[in-house]
Amino acid sequence: MEEGEDRNLIDDGKYSFSIINYFNRKGISWTAWEFDPDWVPQLIKNWEYDPTSQGIIFRDVMLGKFKYEE
């Protein structure tokens, strides 16, 4: 990627819900994986593994705490 291109990958509060709902409507299985606080889209903030807002959403969905669109 060119320098600064990753700014387009920062979660705007819509991506998580949009992609999860899309996958579920289409019957696509998925997992969230980004185990590095410096790569985007980030799921953890630091090496203490504090989740980002996007990380919290994906975690809660996988734990069944969030009801997605059918």
Question: What would your notes on this structure say?
Answer:
With 70 residues, the chain is an all-alpha fold. It starts with 14 loop residues before the first helix and ends in an 8-residue tail after the last helix. The model has no long low-confidence stretch (mean pLDDT 81).
Number of strands: 0
Which of globular, elongated, flat, extended, rod-shaped describes the shape?
globular
Domain module count: 1
Count of helical stretches: 2
Multimerization status? single chain
Order of helices and strands: HH
> Uncertain segments of ≥5 residues (pLDDT<50)?
none
- Let me know the largest β-sheet: none
SS strand fraction: under 5%
Task: Report the end-to-end length measured between terminal Cα atoms.
Answer: 35 Å
Q: How much helix, percentage-wise, in residues?
A: 25-40%
Mean pLDDT rating: 81
Question: How much is the radius of gyration in Å?
Answer: 13 Å
**Which class of secondary structure composition applies to the elements?**
mainly alpha
Short description:
The protein has 70 residues and is an all-alpha fold. It is 31% helix and 0% strand. The radius of gyration is 13 Å and the shape is globular.
Provide key terms for this protein.
70 residues; mainly alpha; 2 helices
Give the helix/strand layout:
Elements: H1 15-26, H2 53-62
